[in-house]
Amino acid sequence: MPPSHRFIKTRLALMMFLQYVVMGAVWPVMSLYLRQVLGLSGTQTGTVLALSAVGAFVAPAVGACVADRLISAERLLSLCHFGAAAFMGLILRQTGFETVLPCYLGYAVCMGSTVALTNAIAFHHAPQGQRRFGNIRVWGTIGWVTVAWGFGALWLQDLDGAGPASHLPGALRFSVWASLVLGLYGLSLPRVDKRIQGPIRLLPRESMRVFMKPQVLLMAAAGYLVGTVDRYYYFGMALYLKDLGYTEGQIMPMMSAGQITEMVAMCLLAWFLARLGTKRTLLLGLLAEIGRFSAFAFGSSNFLVLMGNACHGLAFAFFFTSLYITIDSYCDTQSRTGLHQLFTIATSSLGALTANLLGGWCLDHFVRASTQTQPDYRGFWLVPTVISCVCFVLIALFFKEPDDSDPLQEVPRTG
Fold first, then answer.
1. Among residues 167, 25, 125, 46, which one has the least CA distance to residue 410?
2. Predicted local confidence at residue 267, as pLDDT
3. Are 318 and 273 in contact (CB under 8 A)?
4. Is 412 inside any structural domain?
5. How many domains, the chain?
6. H/E element, 218
């Protein structure tokens, strides 16, 4: 690879690293922070997390309209992280449900489009972007693992006798600084030369034209189902591990088993796509999803919990990353950023809303309503198991291997 290409790849890898450092410092501990530090009830905690999906709806829709039109995707990423840092700083100053709710909603609006933006930027700039995306995206996983062990295994340990909960704000405070750093770093990224022309529409015509293709709609539907079970996992895992007797300091390292296997899977993803094809790779990821939730539903031993979390990384790499690559194979420069934002609405945003509402209902119906001394999570985890099976059947029956758009070939930057 020419030195200039290596330099670009390194810069994109650092962008991914910082993006997932921010997310990894917040996602695993936010529910614990709301419950243990602010003292919110379970219903209030669920309401905060569910309403965050409203922001996740708004942000990608706005991003699809303005990215690469009024402002480049790189500069929009910076603005989003500056806003995220400001709102997280406000969250750390709140003490009650009524005041933390709008602040967290603002944070969700700022963060809602950042994953899609980093994906679009990587595909814009990386030489042979679709072939090398896995090698760039893996640095996001490394960033997540770094935070998980730095805060989970070290910071959240009860080293001073004050209790792990007293250290939870430190993780959120760290995310503020990480967002500021990524915001500044985003200003240094080169902008895409070609600006999209034409009137601003709520649903960009170029992106909608691609999104409405039958295979893209099928992938969006599958992404919605798997996005739902993925966020369902984050909703219930910390509570599940806590009820099994794990301490706050053990939760993030235990969940990071998924990121460790994800790093390995990301490095092998191009090989799997070349040997097995897109469809079989997607099905392999869905088998990992089914295995993950089955392990939680039918056992509670340390080994099964560890294996279930490890399957998370395989599922994400083989299903979601393959899906991103395949979606991008339908894009050109005119539709790329908007299509990734629309795809985020269909998967992460709608999936997050469904997962939080469904997870809260299932927690009350299957776990809290249990008459057993030990909380019973079997019914709780069988719900995402069934959803994953439905998605497996959907892909197995209706997904077609891309013909003209090979996800391992570079797409011409036309338009």
1. 125
2. 82
3. no
4. no
5. 1
6. helix 214-243
